[in-house]
Amino acid sequence: MASDPPEERVCQWIRAHDALQHFGTYTGSTQSQQHIKPLHWYVACRLVLEGGFHPDEINPHPPFAVTKDRRGKMLVYDPQSATGTEGTILGGLKTKNVDVVVTKNGIGPVIAVSCKGTIGAFRNLTNRMEEAVGDCTNLHITYPAMVCGFMAVMRANRYEDGFAEALEEAAAEDAVQEIETGNAPASRQLKANDIAISKGGDVVESIIRYHAALRELTGRRGIRNDLSRYEAVALALVESNSATPGTILAHFPKADSPLRIEQFFDTLYLRYEERYVYAAPDLKHTTSRIEWSRQSPALSLPEAAERLKDFSIRLNG
Q1: Cα dihedral: 171, 207, 111, 280 (round 10)
Q2: Where are the domains of the chain?
Q3: For residue range 206-218, what is the model confidence (pLDDT) as tens digits?
Q4: Which residue in 73, 149, 222, 287 is a FRET match for 137, CA 20 to 30 A apart?
Q5: Which residues contact 114 (CB under 8 A, 6 or more apart)?
Q6: C-alpha span between 220 and 217 (Å, rounded)
Q7: Contact in structure between 217 and 131 (CB atoms under 8 Å)
């Protein structure tokens, strides 16, 4: 497969739907992380526009620059400044590359967001849980005040008519191969294991269990709390083989779940404010989040309104 052109490896100003549509329809290798990279870019850009963090504080560097005049801090669209680098954080057990990191000069990393995209093999989610717990603990050992977020997106692969017949055919072929070679192929299990939404429209049991496990990993409030818990966790099922790829499944998680993606960013900001602004008033000149001028050049671009549809920009006045 041809490598991605360099411009596709750096952070771009992208809508959530475009990032999720890319995730839901990507057909290349997942080892390169290209199926989930656009979601990293979306998170990085949102932390600037809505979160009020300076783009120079974020890895990967979003395609923005900042100027200042009598009207306030002006946000400028600057694709030449964008990078594709992850942030490297010194953990208590090992250094860790994290998808999106906010670092404050003189303080260190203050926000770290990991984005995990699962396209199938949903019976193997235990490995994901072990990795998530280990990463969070590792980072909080060194930086107990750091706000850690975990965003898990999964393809909502739907059971389709003819799927059962295809499985039976694959099983027959596997049986012949096993008789002839003495080896049991894995294709039958893999195909069934990729289904997230059953024939009746219900979410499969393995993903429901994953949701229950993730609930136990979220909600860390104070810096003396459990180091293995994240401050915020989100879980979203993204339509893939449907008429609306990239759309988030509305009914799962349920409306009262702490893992709803709609509340993910607000929780990050709240925990950040509590620890780095309210609790440390002498550092407010460094830690206060920026309010952007309404006259910012980036906001007057024709594409700005569309790209800002799913959240509100942090404005002054």
Answers
A1: -170
A2: 6-159+195-307, 161-192
A3: 999 999 999 999 9
A4: 287
A5: 98, 99, 132, 135, 148, 149, 150, 151
A6: 8
A7: no
